[in-house]
Amino acid sequence: MGAEGGAPVKILSEMINSIEIILNHVHEGIVIADRDGKVLYVNEANERITGLENSKILGKYVKDVAPESSIPEVIKTGKEKLGVKTRVNDRYVISNIVPIKEKESGELIGAISVFLDITELETLNAKLIKAQEKINKLSLQLSSFMGNEEPIIGKNAKMQKAFSLALKAANVNSNVLITGESGTGKEVVAKFIHEKGTRKNKPFVAVNCGAIPENLLESELFGYEAGAFTGASSRGKPGLFEQANGGTIFLDEIGDMPYPLQVKLLRVLQEKEIMRVGGTQKIKLDVRVIAATNRDIEAMVKEKKFREDLYYRLNVIKIDLPPLKERKEDLPLYISYFLNKLSSRLGKEKPKVASAAMKLLLNYDYPGNIRELENILENSLIIDDDGSITVEDLPEYLLKGNTYKYFDLLKERWPKLYEVEKSVIEESIRVFKNKTKVAEILGIPRSTLYRKIKEYGIKC
Ligand SMILES: Nc1ncnc2c1ncn2[C@@H]1O[C@H](COP(=O)(O)OP(=O)(O)OP(=O)(O)O)[C@@H](O)[C@H]1O
Fold first, then answer.
1. Of 27, 99, 195, 279, which has the most beta carbons under 10 Å away?
2. What DSSP character marks residue 61?
3. Can you give the residue ranges of the PAS domain (predicted)?
């Protein structure tokens, strides 16, 4: 027979009475509600965990005192809910809520919730997540500092050809000569070849032949024996070739290598062994050579400034990198790539680029190539403080000589002459602020500028 009227509550109360002494001594919080969802019992741990006074809860509807509790749902569905995470006051608890049924009839007479305080655990977990996020960010910053991220190739056909040649070069040991203007990515390509080949776990040693004084270059490259020259270490020193053994040596600015040293380099390339300065023993080496230059090396050969035989030795695989102005279609890709890389390095959010600023960036010719683009973006990221790169965040020289193109692109229709003039003046005032400077930049006397400001009703 089923329980009727007040009977269910009575049965439930009797059940509770018989075990209350136990319930009050358990560490977990316990709440028992009748089938109407009214709190019939709460143990002492409940008060400690939730901070809610037991006397203020008893007899109240669960939905009123703990709106997030799942007790009403369990009473409604008759189905248990296990491992439910809820927030009560400022504490986090995890509860198991089970319907209570009358033994004989199986009729639902209430529900019991047993819960555990997991606030400390949650706090620790949140700290852990934050720490993990920080680690991820730092490791990203670190990897961009180490420069070991993949280079971008882009859609430009010449760049695609250069990288596919680099990939082929990675699988063989032939010498490589990379040509291209300064900042076009010659070292990036050299590293790419090294990283994609079997030598990737061995050293990659980069030498800027133009930056080392002529009299030191030989001993830097090939090392020296004890007492080889005044000032030499008494223990001798291995050179960069020896340091690169098993790996790759990148000889940047090879065009700057002094003519007499070119003969020695040629011998090293042919014989695959070096002799330290002041030494008598030959040292066998296994070094892959990649050379690069931003000079017209063929012209240098013709002018006898670079040895022809060395040129042919180095020029087994030739990779030519086009200047950035010849691959403008890839500029948006580069801009996005560097903003990503630089903002993570600087610990900032990746900014948006305002359309006027983007037009300026896309219109510029970048004589310093990718290095210059990277510098411009890094600079603008440092200046920017509102998450959006605007014309003001870009260097002034980008604006000079670019105004007409910029205006042209800005307008969808062909503008009237006075509109161009008005807009150029407005834009210049906005950017340079100072009228003397604006007059100077626009190449007009100050009096003319003032007259035009008045004529066009420009507010400044
Ligand atoms: N394809 C690319 N992907 C990503 N970054 C690039 C790429 N090309 C160039 N860069 C970046 O541009 C900058 C200049 O590149 P790199 O030093 O390789 O140029 P370079 O041609 O060797 O210059 P230099 O002749 O002055 O030595 C570097 O910061 C590099 O990370």
1. 99
2. B
3. 15-60
At the top level of CATH, the class of 157-322 is alpha beta
Distance 161 CA to ligand 1 centre (A): 17
- Cβ contact 287:244 at 8 Å: yes
Looking at residue 1, its pLDDT comes to 36
Q: Cβ distance 51 to 119 under 8 Å?
A: no
Centroid of ligand 1 to alpha carbon of 181 (angstroms): 10
Mean pLDDT by 10 residues, the chain (460 residues): 60 82 85 94 91 91 90 95 86 92 88 91 78 61 56 89 94 96 95 94 92 85 79 77 95 93 94 90 95 95 95 96 94 94 89 90 91 94 90 81 50 66 85 88 93 90
- Rounded distance, CA 385 to CA 339, Å? 14
The CATH number given to 7-117 is 3.30.450.20
Look-up of token digits 């919730």: 113
Contacts of 143 (CB under 8 A, 6+ apart): 149
Of 159, 177, 187, 326, the residue with max ligand 1 atoms within 8 A of its CB, to mutate for a pocket test, comes to 187
Q: Do domains 157-322 and 327-456 have the same CATH topology?
A: no
Q: At 317, give phi and psi (nearest 5°).
A: -120, 125
User: Does the model's ipTM exceed the 0.95 cut?
Assistant: yes
The topology (CATH level 3) of 327-456 is Helicase, Ruva Protein; domain 3 (1.10.8)
Ligand 1, atom 16: closest residue by C-alpha: 185
Residue 198 CB contacts under 8 Å (≥ 6 apart), including other chains: none
Ligand 1 atom at shortest distance from the alpha carbon of 191: 18
Q: Which residues contact 279 (CB under 8 A, 6 or more apart)?
A: 223, 224, 225, 228, 236
Q: Is 97 helix (H, G, I), strand (E, B) or coil?
A: strand
